[in-house]
UniProtKB/TrEMBL annotation:
Domain (Fibronectin type-III) ranges: 63-171
Keyword NADP carried by entry: no
Source species of the chain: Acanthosepion pharaonis (Pharaoh cuttlefish)
Protein's name according to its UniProt entry: CNTN1
InterPro entries to which the protein is assigned, alphabetical: FN3_dom, FN3_sf, Ig-like_dom_sf, Ig-like_fold, Striated_Muscle_Regulatory
């Protein structure tokens, strides 16, 4: 336990302390206090006749420290999920209550929260030293990096360093193209257009599109099929003649 002795010298107030004075009390406070300032403080008041002392224990609490050791378990990777592990941060005097997990991918390079409000109690692994959680809702065939943020009663700590990159397994596309329409052709020719999937939604290599069509009046007729294996960046069209 640290112990400190304070004497009311002006030189002390210029460096570490600020003076507080109101109509009912006066004293000193520490500027930019941190955990290292915790300890037992003794204030000494002296005059030629006597010396009076008073002591108090000071404990500094703050938001959590930085989460460390973030990594993914390769054996748990699926098309849409992965299990992450990390080391609990210093709680700085107030127990960690929850975590947020953020991620970015090679095809969407902006940090986004992919799991939030993970209770500290449910993340305990290995005698509370390691924590773990399964992240779901990822996109197939994307390379992801992860980082964590810890919270306690005072707020959130800093984001951890990012993890290594982990690639989810590939799968068929899980989203259909949007903006499907037609028109704009000449006599006997119809253009079919649609908005292609974002690269992060391809689910794997070799994206292509199959267009099924039939006349509106032929509701009982089988669908005709056209195949296009290009992957454009803008609206795409196929011509039926």
């Amino acid at each position: 336990m640290r112990s400190y002795t304070l004497r009311l010298f002006a030189t002390l107030m210029k460096t570490v302390w600020n003076k507080v004075k109101t109509s009912t009390r006066q004293g000193l406070y520490i500027r930019n206090a941190n955990k290292l300032n915790s300890g037992r403080y003794t204030c000494i008041v002296e005059n030629p006749l006597e010396t009076v002392t008073g002591s108090a224990q000071l404990t500094i609490i703050s938001t959590p420290g930085e989460v460390s050791g973030v990594y993914g378990e390769d054996s748990t990777i699926t098309t849409t999920s992965i299990r992450l592990r990390w080391l609990a941060p210093p709680d700085n005097g107030s127990p960690v209550t929850k975590y947020d997990i953020q991620a970015f991918s090679n095809l969407d390079p902006e940090w986004k929260t992919v799991a939030s409000d993970i209770p500290d109690a449910t993340a305990n692994v290995d005698a509370e030293l390691f924590k773990a959680a399964i992240v779901t809702g990822l996109l197939p065939d994307n390379n992801y990096n992860f980082r964590l943020i810890a919270y306690n009663a005072l707020g959130n700590g800093p984001a951890s360093l990012q993890s290594a990159s982990y690639r989810t397994l590939s799968s068929p596309p899980t989203k259909a193209p949007t903006g499907v329409g037609g028109g704009g052709g000449t006599v006997g020719v119809l253009s079919i257009i649609w908005q292609p999937l974002h690269p992060s939604e391809h689910g794997g290599r070799g994206i292509g599109y199959i267009v099924y069509w039939r006349k509106k009046s032929d509701s009982d007729v089988r669908w005709f099929k056209l195949t296009n294996k290009r992957s454009p960046d803008k609206y795409q069209s196929l011509v039926i003649s």
